[in-house]
Amino acid sequence: MRAHYDFSKMNGEKNPYIKHLKQPVTIRLDKASVAYFKNMATELGMPYQNLINLYLRDCAINQRKLSLRWTS
Predict the structure, then answer these.
(1) Model pTM?
(2) Is the residue at 43 inside a domain?
(3) Domain assignment of residue 38, yes or no
(4) How many domains does the chain have?
């Protein structure tokens, strides 16, 4: 390996796939849910949006389904 590399002549290109990695969405969550994820994210040292994304991705990968029963 060289001791020094010259990057001044390099043509930098933006990642063409960056727009396919994440999709911005607007979602309304109750305050308690947001507070829960913010507290957990603070403990883990990561942004709470990433934590919510990881949780939702895990649910999607494992095909978890919510079972709700409405009472009359």
Answers:
(1) 0.67
(2) yes
(3) yes
(4) 1
